[in-house]
Write a structure and sequence with these properties.
globular, single chain, about 20% strand, Rossmann fold, about 45% helix, about 120 residues
Length: about 120
């Protein structure tokens, strides 16, 4: 079982991800609706994995990714975004993301990616 923090400005997407990972036996410790709140949730809970959307108010996912990686280079981060252009995916992975999942996603893809990141 892994612990997660889910960061997405869409409550619907947070609920979808939470349902997928919870049904697989993982625990969501916290959710956040923007990157700044996501950093706070990550710092408070130190989950095994944090998922980050890219397009969010207050602080976007790339900025949150950079801030988390500055504080803990070993932090595991999965970017989950509808911005699936090669340049953006490459920039996220180069910035320290462990994986990138494009939206819309399938439950199997989320779980397969999560298991790969946890190894």
């Amino acid at each position: 079982m892994a612990t997660l923090v889910i960061v997405d400005d869409s409550s619907f997407m947070r609920r979808m991800l939470k349902d997928i990972v919870s049904r697989a036996g993982h625990e969501v410790l916290a959710e956040a609706g923007d990157g700044a709140a996501g950093i706070d949730a990550w710092a408070a809970h130190h989950p095994d994995v944090v998922t980050l959307d890219l397009a969010m108010p207050t602080m976007d996912g790339e900025s949150a990714l950079a801030a988390i990686k500055r504080r803990d280079p070993a932090a595991r981060v999965i970017v989950c975004s509808s911005q699936v252009q090669d340049e953006i995916i490459h920039r996220c992975l180069a910035g320290g993301a462990d994986a990138f999942i494009g939206k819309p996603f399938q439950a199997e893809d989320v779980l397969r990616t999560l298991e790969r990141v946890l190894k």
